[in-house]
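Input chain follows. Return structure tokens only.
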Amino acid sequence: MPLKHQSCQNVFPLEHVSKNVRNSAVLNDTLDAMDSASKTLTGLMDGTNNNIKKLEDDEQTILRELKNVKENLVKQIDKLEEKVIKELSSIKKEKEIKFKRNKTEIGELKAKVQEIHEQVNFLKEHGSNNQLFLAMRQQEKKIQSIDVRVKEMTSTFVGAQLALTSIHDMKIDSIGSVEETPLPCAIKHIPMKLKQAQAKPDNSNPITSMQWKNQLNLPFGTDYTLTGIAITADDSLLLCNFDNNGNLYTYSSTYAFKSELPLCYPYDVAVIPNTEKAVVTLPINNSIQFIDTAKAVLGNKVSTEESCYGVCANRITYI
């Protein structure tokens, strides 16, 4: 720590600087900032609740769509099944007719073979050799004919096995997928200081000419040294008369006199944006005076270290 401590300058007691804090623009700005943040958070909470509800709604929508897809697939499978069943019935009927025809012919040939076999076997047991020989010669052509036919039948005999093909190859890779699409937040939050720093673009056409419209006539009998002028939000006109007995005059938008406030040498006036307040410089008294423009009453008076003449204001700073 240095041996010689530099004395503090321009330091005011806390009680002094906080005396008018309840009526200060800083307090109003702080409350406005909290209101803005609370409003934004409320909007975000509502948006979050809506997002949760939308998830439930989207889930139900997807489940309904999946159900429809499944029902459509089942309908298609039912149609394909009906087609296969008809095809199966047709092939089965065709093969049954062919097999029954073969069965009839086989039965007839078998009966002939059995008949010849019984005749030859009977003569073998009970007939003479001559009778057996003659019988065999008589049946020889029949036996050869039967043998040829049996050979033909065995060479062309084809059975049938019915099976459902491609059942193991059928594969459905996907019936859809869930896609997430991010939705941007519709709630915007601009900090109060940034709001105050932003200037709205002037979209009005540039002034190319000026025309005399009306004239404000001040009352006679008073010395006027008009040094400051400002217009309020309701188009009222504020005039500073820099005189020992000077006043702050207020005129309506129709140029009618509204009020006057007694001030000592008011020099300049500035309206605080988005409020019904104005600030007036009193350079002779090293102070600035706050005005309620709506009620036309004096507000707080703040001392300055030096004489202030011109003034401009926003909601936080007065220059």
